[in-house]
Amino acid sequence: MAEALAKITELKDLGMVQIRADLVRAGDAIAAATGLAMPAANATVTDGARTLCWMSPDELLLVLPKAEAREATQALADALSTEHALVLDVSDMRAAFAIEGARAAQALAKLCPADIAAMPADGIRRTRAAQVACGIWRRGEGFVLIGFRSVGDYIGGLLRGAARPGTELDPR
Amino acid sequence: MSDNGPFRLSRGGRLIDRAYQLPFRFDGRQMRGVQGDTIASALLANGQLMMGRSFKYHRPRGPVASGAEEPNALLGLGQGGRFEPNQRATTTPLVGGMVTTSQNCWPSLNFDIGAVNNKLYRFLPAGFYYKTFIHPRPAWKHLFEPIIRRSAGLGKAPTEGDLDTYEQAYGHADLVVVGGGIAGLTAALEAGRTGKTVTLLEQTPQFGGRTPTDHADGQARIDALLAELHALPNVTLRRNTMATGLYDHGYLIAREALADHDPNAGIPRQRLWRIRAGHVVVASGALERPLSFAGNDVPGVILASAVRDFVDLYGVAPGRNLVVVTNNDDAYRTALTALDAGLAVAAVIDARPTAQGALPEAVRARGVRVLTGSAVAGIKGGQAVEGVKLCAHSGSGDVTEVIAADCVAMSGGWSPVVHLWSHCGGKLSWSEDRAMFYPDLARPPTGADGAAMATPLGAAAGDLTVAEVTGAVAEQPLLPVWVMPVNATRKMKFKMWLDFQNDVKVSDVELAAQEGYQSVEHTKRYTTLGMATDQGKVSNINGLAVLSKALNQPIPATGTTTFRPPYTPLTLGTIGAEARGELFQPLRKTDIHGWHESNGAFFEPVGHWRRPYCYPKAGESHHDAVAREIRAVRASVGTLDASTLGKIIVKGPDAGKFLDMMYTGLMSTLPVGKCRYGLICNENGFLVDDGVAARLSEDTWLVHTTTGGADRMHAHMEDWLQCEWWDWKVYTANVTEQWSQVAVVGPKARVLLERLGGTIDLSAEALPFMGWAEGEIAGIPARIFRISFSGELSFEVAVPAKRGREFWEKLHEAGRDLGITPYGTEAMHIMRAEKGFIMIGDETDGTVIPQDLGMSWAISKKKPDYIGKRAQERSFMSSPERWKLVGLESVDGRVLPDGVYAVAEGSNANGQRNTQGRVTSTYMSPTLNRPIAMGLVLHGPNRMGEVLEFPVQGAETYKARIVDPVFYDKEGSRANG
Amino acid sequence: MLTLTCPYCGNAAEETELAPGGEAHLKRFGPGSSDEQFEDYLFARKNPKGVHFERWRHAYGCGKWFLAARDTVTLEVFGTYKAQTPNPTPEIVAAVQAKRPNWTPDWTSTPATTTSAESLTE
Amino acid sequence: MSASPTNSTGKYSVFAIAREAMRLHSGWKRAWQSPEPKKKYKVVIIGAGGHGLATAYYLGKNHGITDIAIIEKGWLGGGNTGRNTTIIRSNYLQDPSAAIFDKALKLYEGLSQDLNYNVMFSPRGLLMLAQTEHEIRGYKRTVYANQLQGVATDWVSPQQIKEMLPIINIDGPRYPVLGGLYQARGGTARHDAVAWGYARACSAMGMDIIQNCEVTGVETANGQVKAVNTGKGRIECDKLAIVVAGHSSVVAEMAGFRLPIESVALQALVSEPIKPCCDLVIMANTVHGYLSQSDKGEMVIGGGTDGFNNYSQRGSWQHVEETVRALIETFPMLSRLKMLRQWGGIVDMTGDRSPILSSTPVGNIFVNCGWGTGGFKAIPGSGWAMAELVANGRPGPLAAEFGLNRFREGRFIDESVAAGVAH
């Protein structure tokens, strides 16, 4: 099925590192180890191929090329070795999709109760896509949506359905 | 007469385009309408006034209204997978090629056998069925109820699945305006100018509401508003979108018709909007009320506003010679509209003593008879209006004159549409002089902040003419008329309809009051008033006015019934939306899922996962496949996709202390590099999950849960960590999906894994039973756990999830000569039962504690506390009378039925047979070639060798001997190999 | 269909993004408690018609448990606050009383220190 | 004494209707009286729903106690009695549940005759669909348990189900129908009529049903009940029965004790009426929905409860969605029907999801509550057992296991082990 509201692409080469720590205490160490500034609450910081996502008051997610995940995990673990912290390579845990196009937000509005269109340029929101959990942040003109790997096919089906031709949300 | 139908006027019809003719069928007859018609207007244009039969008496029914409140004109629409019963003809746009059928009549609309009920009306008053069909007792079930059920229902049931699709969308707006009439548009514009995000929802295909029809320059006013609104980027105007319900915290549900009844559109038929509104303006207008006079249900008796709409909007004449019956000025507009369209108006019958407003005077000026102080005593005609019998309104119905007419336009005044206001708790006030319930601004529906979440506006607020923006002429007060004439006889009231669809009459409501069904809810339920598919939009106010009079109390003392969503019926397909077929629910797949599929796996659902139950070969039964799989594992080597098992990392200085609270056993003492089996109970003491924990490092454990328990146990841990022991330094992470896990099981398991090469020493010395190691295997990073749920030599290999299939295929490649066999969940279940291992969900059911299962070895005596410990000390849980786990050995070689109970002597005080145990797991063991079972039995472990009886209806009683639950390899030597 | 603002991430989440968790501020009774104390802890519920304090988890969001003060009849939300409080905070009490002047707390005092793990397991 | 309410309202029969037809039904008397309360009654029952009225009825019929006031905050039958999905069954797993629900079912079977009021009990058969292996196990276990309890139930195959119910899709892609637990005696009844029939019978025995009378306080002295204070004044009583479903905690609070109860919203909906197509009551617990067709032709659909305390009689929309999509999956023809009306009730959920019929910490106060989502089907049995408890001051065998003490002892009656839900 051709998509009309947005182009849906599964992103297969994203690596992800989960970080749990006291973000105030460990902020500088994390920033140094990731090479990225610490994101504010509900925000992301992106530099090149790396994005650091704020996930909760004590959790970050570093998104980066998959090939770099192992090394980044080790670097973070080393940087936080004196902290009470948890660093895990979770690259295999998630399915990720790019939703791109002028009406990308409309496709997401069919699935997510959160007001994604209102999200700022560096915003991230963890919410629900139909019946599964997801996280969404802006990338370029569109969005990246991550969910659990096991339901990747379901999420893909949802997104393609939401982007069907003729289903624009513009008033008619 | 035109070729657009015999009752199509030669001019007029603001919504139609005569150039586009649309053929359609009604009850098999070919008809033609035009672009812009509703089904109802097209049928009327074709002279088809009768459109259905009523529910109870099967009386002939034509349209009463022109919009969503229509109770009568309900049709079956479409065919096959697109058939829909009870479609409202007045709101369904006509589409070329539509197939429509009348309902609730047999054999035909004109001649309906069910109409015999009509003749029996005297015997079928409200609630008659509560008073009869009582004796003889079986007659109700076998005779009376089947008859009642067969005669009930309106449309035919669809028989097929739905060929259309539906979707949903979430919306957000500072302000949602419900209603695209002049009040709503004005409110949207005012709010839009302040920069607020505004969404306006209009149920019909047109904006403007009644204004263009009712006011001279109405359309121009609407057009001007629309022009300004379209220029505001922060305002969204949606047509064809029905706000069906307002829920707590400003949650508004609306249905947008996208391609209703147009199967060729190739897009979803409807979209359900779920809009979170900062505030809601309810500008939903008002609905006209019928008048209760004898014969008011005859086809051709139509609301005055509807007559006006049919003429003005669709260029259709519901009749050629009208009588208008009214208690207010507004209905005079209908006379004027009819006259302008070239129709005759025989008279206006006005119940008021005088009628001297601008509108009545305008009608008089056109030479129409205006009879004040008058009323309708009855209608001549059965299937259509032939004449109107007049009487004095103040009298008891003595006929003074009969006027020939083919259509009666009636108006009993207007009721604000307060549904959305009321759905979420908004209260109403009664206006005596305006004879209406209107929103009480002092008692609004309140939102999350406790403030009003809705504001009524325009006619919905009781301001019927919205003169401020419409420039409407002043109107004289109406005269409340609930029964016409005032002193109508009891017999006349048997002919005065309140609820046209459900055949509820004035006499029925009075009977309810007489019998003590005095609450308005009692009356509604006793008579079925307002319970038809129009939900009482045209009948409720008249009904409760009649009830109030019968109870001799003011109308507000009677009150209204509760307004419940939806405002108009909402297609269930729209509510289900995309969640059908593949997207019905998320289907969780392991990385190896595709391999299972292409290798013939038969799956079983486990939560949202699909797990291979077994892998039957061609021509092989599931039972045989399972047996083959087990034998292969016990003889050589098999593989199980264990990826679905929960995996939770628990890390931190307090992780050991925390796990000691989570598990009944000690986890803090587990050495690094080792695994330990543990049980998790809930605070109520019951066993809820089990699994193996591995200590990864000094401060890190990896905890395995059951497949179904992963998310639940993770949430359980986070609950205690966040809400009770928040000062403990522990982080958890649910990494279930990060790993693919494969159980490599059987005497050849080590041989096989060693062939794959890698950095992990798999020897018994380096990696003993209940040990784990980390490294690489087959070029893939891996953790290997020496744990066994089958009793065999077993390695559970965890690799990064997305390399799971690669690893699995390498195993199968390398193990081909060993006869490597994939096995499923059933083989796993049986093998664990052969070993006497419990299974969460089999031996446990939410009422079982570890002590019941002989698992005291897994409960630490040293620990002062763990979740569930205190609960297990309660008298019933520590009682020696609890049923305990044992093995059960079938005496006659038959497999015991699963779940069957062992009987004890005698019966209890309620006459139920006493029991002393039940079977929790039971299989034919392919390994032992005999039945095995486990069960919970009173004093079981102390009764080894005793034989229990398990009676089963229709079969010889099963007997089984109490034995040790470990049936296979009691010494445990195989797993240690 | 409630909307509650998670005090941890600050997002207003709708009910489908949340998981309810029942009455808040229950004091855990473990081994050593009386049968009555333990029964009350597990089962006796205020279940008030009116002002209520309850637990929610931002399950489809930041994952944190938090507490909400809500009216069980009107569903008005007086405020949300973090889970790590033995009793509703003074700010929450003030927010409730601003809307429900006749409502008074039914707990006696706020302990000076939070309940520590040791005191429960000694 | 005769419980048949002939003296005040006239006996209902086809002959009475014929007689009244001749005089345009002008002769029908009130079904029940609406008196002002007296100063004192032997027994005051709070709550004129099905359970409260049935308690009164059996106190009169079985125990000869008629000095009873049944006081009701709103209109009788206006709580959960008037807003449930009318399902009646007794195929419960645990012995105490099966006993009381089957007692209720047996009483339902003769209730129209007993009350001389047609409650339209319709034993059309009830089917609980098994759509997972786990459900198969649970329901087969229930069949074995029912057999020993004297409750006839059967395990039926998918093919048998398809024959009984042509609109079902037994080959659903996600949850194919694997079989079902069938109780031929199960069915429905007209919910309002149950309340009205009991009310008429109670009134005929001289009991006072006092509507629009809210209880504002419960007076006790020396640990014993003395009186209730109401919107219509103080009413003294020897014994007090609290039978108020969703509001049990509120009334218990007035009497000074707490219950293991949480009040939550349960939702139901009906479709527009269609011609008969579903001659069974269906419960599908895997996908969580239940379905029957009323005598009017509406598809009556029930679903899940909210997980938070709620006294608003409104539930959250998402449960409607969950229920509807689940049922469409198994009954695809439902997709083109339309929801006519949805509503909510306040149900009282106990710690083990089983009811409470019990004495309380206050002397001569008895409580009947906690029926959760399954109360309607229990009404006659509940009333019977409650009457026994109130009259004797101690439970008979039907109520014996449903005491409050079970929560302290850990002696739960948990039905969820087999059925998933207890509707």
Automatic annotation (TrEMBL), chain A:
<protein>
    <submittedName>
        <fullName>Sarcosine oxidase subunit gamma</fullName>
    </submittedName>
</protein>
<dbReference type="InterPro" id="IPR007375">
    <property type="entry name" value="SoxG"/>
</dbReference>
<dbReference type="InterPro" id="IPR027266">
    <property type="entry name" value="TrmE/GcvT-like"/>
</dbReference>
<dbReference type="Pfam" id="PF04268">
    <property type="entry name" value="SoxG"/>
</dbReference>
Automatic annotation (TrEMBL), chain B:
<dbReference type="InterPro" id="IPR041117">
    <property type="entry name" value="SoxA_A3"/>
</dbReference>
<dbReference type="GO" id="GO:0008115">
    <property type="term" value="F:sarcosine oxidase activity"/>
</dbReference>
<comment type="similarity">
    <text>Belongs to the GcvT family.</text>
</comment>
<dbReference type="InterPro" id="IPR006277">
    <property type="entry name" value="Sarcosine_oxidase_asu"/>
</dbReference>
<dbReference type="InterPro" id="IPR028896">
    <property type="entry name" value="GcvT/YgfZ/DmdA"/>
</dbReference>
<dbReference type="InterPro" id="IPR027266">
    <property type="entry name" value="TrmE/GcvT-like"/>
</dbReference>
<dbReference type="Pfam" id="PF17806">
    <property type="entry name" value="SO_alpha_A3"/>
</dbReference>
<dbReference type="InterPro" id="IPR036188">
    <property type="entry name" value="FAD/NAD-bd_sf"/>
</dbReference>
<dbReference type="Pfam" id="PF07992">
    <property type="entry name" value="Pyr_redox_2"/>
</dbReference>
<dbReference type="Pfam" id="PF13510">
    <property type="entry name" value="Fer2_4"/>
</dbReference>
<dbReference type="InterPro" id="IPR023753">
    <property type="entry name" value="FAD/NAD-binding_dom"/>
</dbReference>
<protein>
    <submittedName>
        <fullName>Sarcosine oxidase subunit alpha family protein</fullName>
    </submittedName>
</protein>
UniProtKB/TrEMBL annotation, chain C:
<feature type="region of interest" description="Disordered">
    <location>
        <begin position="100"/>
        <end position="122"/>
    </location>
</feature>
<dbReference type="Pfam" id="PF04267">
    <property type="entry name" value="SoxD"/>
</dbReference>
<protein>
    <submittedName>
        <fullName>Sarcosine oxidase subunit delta</fullName>
    </submittedName>
</protein>
<dbReference type="InterPro" id="IPR038561">
    <property type="entry name" value="SoxD_sf"/>
</dbReference>
<dbReference type="GO" id="GO:0046653">
    <property type="term" value="P:tetrahydrofolate metabolic process"/>
</dbReference>
<feature type="compositionally biased region" description="Low complexity">
    <location>
        <begin position="103"/>
        <end position="122"/>
    </location>
</feature>
<dbReference type="InterPro" id="IPR006279">
    <property type="entry name" value="SoxD"/>
</dbReference>
<dbReference type="GO" id="GO:0008115">
    <property type="term" value="F:sarcosine oxidase activity"/>
</dbReference>
UniProtKB/TrEMBL annotation, chain D:
<keyword id="KW-0274">FAD</keyword>
<dbReference type="InterPro" id="IPR006076">
    <property type="entry name" value="FAD-dep_OxRdtase"/>
</dbReference>
<dbReference type="InterPro" id="IPR036188">
    <property type="entry name" value="FAD/NAD-bd_sf"/>
</dbReference>
<dbReference type="Pfam" id="PF01266">
    <property type="entry name" value="DAO"/>
</dbReference>
<protein>
    <recommendedName>
        <fullName>Sarcosine oxidase subunit beta</fullName>
        <ecNumber>1.5.3.24</ecNumber>
    </recommendedName>
</protein>
<dbReference type="GO" id="GO:0005737">
    <property type="term" value="C:cytoplasm"/>
</dbReference>
<dbReference type="InterPro" id="IPR001763">
    <property type="entry name" value="Rhodanese-like_dom"/>
</dbReference>
<comment type="similarity">
    <text>Belongs to the SoxB family.</text>
</comment>
<keyword id="KW-0963">Cytoplasm</keyword>
<keyword id="KW-0288">FMN</keyword>
<dbReference type="GO" id="GO:0000166">
    <property type="term" value="F:nucleotide binding"/>
</dbReference>
<keyword id="KW-0285">Flavoprotein</keyword>
